[in-house]
Predict the 3D structure of the following.
Amino acid sequence: MTDDESSVAQTINDGDSHDIHSLLSSSERDFLVGNNGDQVKISSLKGKKIGLYFSASWGVNELSSTGDFEFIYVSGDEDDNPFNGYFSEMPWLAIPFSDSDA
């Protein structure tokens, strides 16, 4: 990835710029979680291609992470029990279910 590519921010909503850290973190959290409960710093994703996977426990999981591409699970579940059950089967990182700010 070139310096120009790494400095490019996604423009959202009338020109507000966000980098991957600001999209995946909140004011009280700078990590994602693994399905084993480990906290993974968002900064560790630097240099990887990121895909956001929006789904819920009733969804179909047919994606897999490979090489320098990392999926981040963004839950659409209404409570944490279905989230925990579904996420426990995933090989990816996720925004914690309890973080309603992200």
